[in-house]
Fold each of these.
Amino acid sequence: MGDLLDHLIGVVNLQSQRIELRIQLPYTQWSWVLAVEHERPLGHHLTPDSGTPSVLSEAQIRQFIHDGFVKIPGAFPREIADHGRSILWQDTGCDETDPTTWTKPVIRLGMYGQEPFARAANTPVLHQAFDQLVGPGRWWPRTDLGTFPIRFPSPHDPGDAGWHVDSSFPPDSGDTSDFLNWRVNVTSKGRALLMLFLFSDVGEPDAPTRIRIASHLDVARILAPAGEYGLSSRDLAAEQTFAETAARDQVLATGDAGTVYLCHPFLVHAAQPHRGSRPRFLAQPPLTQAEPFLLNRTNGTYWPVEQAIRIALQAA
Ligand SMILES: O=C(O)CCC(=O)C(=O)O
């Protein structure tokens, strides 16, 4: 049991006298659910109706549904961010202590599965928040954190700061290596969340990601007519770069290292040039679905990602 618990990555379900734990071998896709029965009730950890532990308050869940994101400070420990940054610095080819070596506005690195990245992605706080927003058993734990666009102070345009939503599934045919061909549809096939993991302290001048508040509702309406097949990133870019969302208020994804923003997959966001002095380290992986989202269920119960889409389509 002790050895198994070394690989504990989250609590899947917490009931009065039964705990279900998700166990995963490090750096693999495989995980198992281990059910443990115990004698003493754990009722004080539960929300009254759902049996799910509450990392996110009702107000935060409402904010996620209506604004399209929720900010979780301290979602993973600062020490993990420090360790992760030290690994990334080595691969930038730059000297952390010598700004004259920071010659590019952005360097993209990715697919790091080392311990700090796998641990950051799998804290109990995040797993519980995933359960609350996406539903228990409806998402896959991550073993890496996807791409890190590392942004450096620079007078030059980084060339990648346009408004967009992240696509989620490959085209049936055509060039899958061209990400403009990747698609997104109204049920967000393949993607449960967009996530922003802050691996450095990010203040306003430090190129925080720009977010258009509530733009996920506009995007749901753009996607609805395209049905299951959805639209490609190229199609979406042709929608006058999300002109419908331009009037939305903006928020900047600032925060201390260890902060995570959990965002609706349709949230329109953009990078920006770095005007500060300390390089910005951020990962932006998807949370992938284990079960597809549904917009019409016979039991009428919907998870917050689905609720937001239904509100946008006025089906709620
Ligand atoms: O670097 C950022 O702030 C966001 C980058 C981004 O959204 C992207 O590359 O898709």
Amino acid sequence: MTTMTAFLRMADARWLPVMAALVMGMVLMSWAPVAANGLDQVIVEGVWARPAGAGENSAIYFAITNPGAEDVELIGVETDVANIAEIHETVMHMEMVEGRISQEMHMHHIHSLLVPAGETVKLQPGGLHLMLIGLKHDLEVGQTFMVRLLAADGSALNLEVPVSQGEPRG
Ligand SMILES: [Cu+2]
């Protein structure tokens, strides 16, 4: 009996659901790594960080574009250059002070930053940024350093960040 006839005998109707399940399983297994690679497919442009001295704070800015079909959820950032690195959001806070409306800029740590499928999210002064708290050494204009973005799906992205007074041109 050849392999082919064995295969044909297995193709008996009662085996069809089992074979269909096996094929589906193979398809899902081959697709799984694509779905888990959220940060591998994003495009990061215009990255820069403010210069600051050792012990001070700095911030990193960039535009992140998600060309994929799945949302990417940033949940953190790692770097060797600062004691703490966090995703921050700056919000305008309005309050009544002595009968007058007072506006203040506040920033706070956010634990999740969604980059929706097909969209660009901009981290910029006065808005979203990656906060570097307690620099371990000076960040001087012209230097570069590494950060690692972390996503909820387990994917990560290493970024080389130039220190600059503003968004680099080009
Ligand atoms: Cu901040």
Amino acid sequence: MSTTAPAATHSHASAGKNEVALFGLPALLLIVAIVSIAIAAVYLRRASGVKADSILLVGARGSGKTNMLARLEHDAWVETHTSLKDNSVMVALDDEGKLCTRVIDVPGHEKLRYQTHHFTPVARGIVFVLDAARLGKDIRQVAEYLYDILTDSRVAQREIPILLACHKADLATAYAPKRCREMLETEIDRIRVTRTAAVDSQTAEQEQHSAAERYLGYEGETFRFDHLPNDVQEVACSSLQETSEANDRLGSVKEWMADVAAGRT
Ligand SMILES: Nc1nc2c(ncn2[C@@H]2O[C@H](COP(=O)(O)OP(=O)(O)O)[C@@H](O)[C@H]2O)c(=O)[nH]1
Ligand SMILES: [Mg+2]
């Protein structure tokens, strides 16, 4: 009896320590979860409570999103949502100004990419901006970002239409849109193999986390955008100011936006 008493005391003390350690982690996770939900809620509320009324400009840093937004703003409608003023504008899509849509410039920096998922609930269309002159060099990084967007459960479930905006088409080295589309398909096919292998070897916890991440396309078939529930189109475009004739090289992007805003896509 006398030998068990100190042991019991000892185990009680270490249990107490463990409780503190165990309590610390869930509390931290809870705080992180609450803060994340609060941030998302603020974003959504600031987006004026209107659901899926926006078109997102997403893409790698340097692809020209901010430039494109500035060019679109040239014909901009009045911006009333001041909270998103810095990175969103209302763009008029017809001459009478009856058809317009909010366009949001989503930061493309690697560390801010998770923000894209905060914006997908308000998206009715996604313009994926890519630097068509650098696609050969940046293909992996660009395709990975696109893969992350396409596997977002909301993007798939709501069949949000996607435009591959092959930007900087003014440069002689820019790839043609069809070629950009093919390059992305080939690279996504490779990424799909890697990611699927990673899913097979991950723990139950990780698996639960990525359960929402869907398998893209058809198993056993080379990846094609046509296999997705989303409509995926590609256009060449440029945000450079045209010097001579009124040759609006964002016209193709605006036409697509008008189709999306009018529910034609
Ligand atoms: N040649 C060319 N350069 C562009 C075009 N659009 C943007 N750029 C340049 O690309 C760089 C990145 O543009 P920015 O809008 O800041 O890209 P973001 O990081 O995606 O917002 C800048 O140096 C722009 O001048 C374009 O249509 N053609
Ligand atoms: Mg920018």
